[in-house]
Amino acid sequence: MAVELDAPLRQHNTFGLPATARQLVRITHEADVRRVLAHPRLGRAPKFVLGGGSNVILTRDMPEVVLKVEVGGVRLLAERDDAFIIEAGGGERWHDVVAWTLAHGFHGLENMALIPGTVGAAPVQNIGAYGLELADRFESLDTVDLVTGRTVTLNKAQCKFGYRDSLFKTALAGKSLITRVRLRLPRPWIPVLGYLDLERKMADTGNTHPDARTIFDWVCAIRRAKLPDPAEIGNVGSFFKNPMVSAEQCRDIITRDPHVVHYPMADGQFKLAAGWLIDACGWKGKAIGHAGVYEKQALVLVNKGGAIGSEVVTLARAIQESVYGRFGIRLEPEPVIV
Ligand SMILES: Cc1cc2nc3c(=O)[nH]c(=O)nc-3n(C[C@H](O)[C@H](O)[C@H](O)COP(=O)(O)OP(=O)(O)OC[C@H]3O[C@@H](n4cnc5c(N)ncnc54)[C@H](O)[C@@H]3O)c2cc1C
Questions:
Q1: Which of 12, 27, 55, 236 has the most ligand 1 atoms within 8 A of CB, as the residue to mutate?
Q2: Does domain 4-69 have CATH number 3.90.550.10?
Q3: Is 168 helix (H, G, I), strand (E, B) or coil?
């Protein structure tokens, strides 16, 4: 087992923040986790699990043992009458797995194309985009307990998925490492087209019955037009969750701001567009130090070049305060702030 000392993390986080891991170990198999736990020096030290670093804000050097998940492999595990079951290693790039399924004729992940990061991190915040979230396509996962080294398999109910939320952000936060995820792609395939941007594509192209490949291409094109590419501008995608409010609260905000972007939810609540709230407070294009608000989408904070984690946190807090001051709504950050 190779232990990298004082490993730079700038290239391991998409915001491009400078930080160093005192010790970094690459996990290519679950046995590697048990080797770390049995190690005389590393075994009892605190651990931090890192995937592709596309949802973390690093504000400091890391004394924890950083476990960089690189478990690979994608395969068709089972072919049932009602679904294909695909199994992927936690270190696979999520988008590569989406592309792999499509290339092999297993449809159902196309709306979640181009989401950065690894397969193992996907259940952590129940990734989602364009009308679909991981929970809709989830079968089970394997996770290794970071104290006992025991592997457990958890099903969908046990993962307690919610909006950008799961057991891995609550009871199991920082306590386990997801090594494998199994995805359930229902048969027959039914396209998910209810999202506004996709409806626009159908109207623009005149194609009202797109196949899975077309939806994949549309989603990639929409995302490329809207979001900064982390390879060019450091960012972690949406910085805040879209807040949920009661019908009464929503009515109250509409009375004051008739243009507020809001979506009714099945449970009677309303989801407000966090980007709209931030934009309404005048933040688009503004910066604090080297951290800024993306000019094209106020929900995305960006590295203007040479940003450090504390600048990002200061900017995020200032945005939270002004949104709270104007709308009485507390925005909750989506990335994990370390
Ligand atoms: C341009 C851009 C667009 C994005 N768009 C979306 C989007 O549309 N929808 C969406 O949901 N997200 C989006 N994101 C956020 C991000 O892509 C996801 O949250 C992704 O799942 C993070 O994966 P990662 O491997 O980079 O995780 P990391 O950032 O490395 O880690 C995130 C958290 O998960 C934990 N973790 C990572 N791997 C494991 C593992 N194997 N086992 C246990 N815990 C683990 C970490 O400890 C940390 O707490 C976007 C990000 C960017 C940069």
A1: 55
A2: no
A3: helix
